[in-house]
Amino acid sequence: MEKKKPHYDLGTIKATFCKVASLRITKTALSSAEAHGISLQSIVNIIQAMTREQFYKSMTSQWSSAIWQDVYHVPHEGIVLYVKFTTDPEGYLVISFKEK
C-alpha cells in the first residue's frame, strides 16, 4: 500500500538524528552513502536539511503491511538521494540512503 502523506513526522526524525551518536542506519544504507563519499556526519547534515517538499511517498514494507516506510528524494551535490526511514522496536531507522 502507498500514500502521498508522510507516515512519520519529519521534525521528530530530524530531532532523533541530530548527531552521529544517535544515527541508526542499516549496513546497506551506510554502504550506499559511503559509495558516494557521504560520511556519517554528512548523513546527519543531509537529514537536518531535509524538507517536507522533498517527501515522495509512504509505503508499507514488502514483508508486512503494518510496517510503514517514508521515502524522500533529496538533492545533494548534483545527485538526488533516495532516503527511506522506518521504525523498529528501538525507534527510527534509516534503511536506504542511495542515489535515486
Quick gist of this model?
This protein is of the alpha+beta class and 100 residues long. It is 26% helix and 36% strand. The longest helix is centred in the middle third of the chain and has 10 residues.
Walk me through what this model shows.
The chain has three helices and five strands. It is of the alpha+beta class. The protein has a single domain (2-99), classed as YaeB-like fold (2-Layer Sandwich), CATH 3.30.2310.40. A five-stranded antiparallel sheet has the order 1-2-3-4-5. Strand 2 (55-60) and strand 3 (68-76) form a beta hairpin.
Give the N-to-C terminal Cα separation.
Answer: 21 Å
Q: Which consecutive residue ranges, at least 5 long each, have pLDDT under 50?
A: none
CATH top level assignment: Alpha Beta
Number of strands: 5
What is the CATH topology classification name?
YaeB-like fold
Largest sheet: 5 strands, antiparallel
Derived structural class: alpha+beta
Percentage of residues in strands? 35-45%
What is the number of independent domains?
1
- In percent, how helical is the residue content? 25-40%
Count of helices? 3
Rounded mean pLDDT is: 96
Radius of gyration from the CA trace? 13 Å
CATH architecture: 2-Layer Sandwich
